[in-house]
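Problem: given the chain below (134 residues), write out its structure.
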Amino acid sequence: MKGFFPDQSDHGAVTPFEYLPASAITPKAGLALVLTNGLLALATGTTAPTYICMKDADAAVTAGTIIPVVRVDKDRIYETTNSAAFSSAKIGQKVTLHTDGLQVTATTTGGVAEIVDFDDKAKSGTGGTVHVRF
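Solution.
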């Protein structure tokens, strides 16, 4: 499972879908996105996402295509995976987003995703379960 998926919330409310225009990206459920010049674009590195994609596509969409997303909520915890071992990562640290916009890295400099918890697989390698908050 790659992607950022809503897992828990402090308030228990269900996050409603919004429908916004995308840039020429290949939508994947769980993809971290930001609005840039009125179009949804990939959020990576030190760019905090403002939306999470809720659609899968096999190919890039035409710029302006409307896709379903959920707004990132500071009171919600998202489940994802790690692209690098969390050998020195600690709960409470902020890490960056991987270049695919679907995972977190172990890099803390300029981090935007606060680690809430992670499993033993994340400590020793890639692909572990990681919970983050933005």
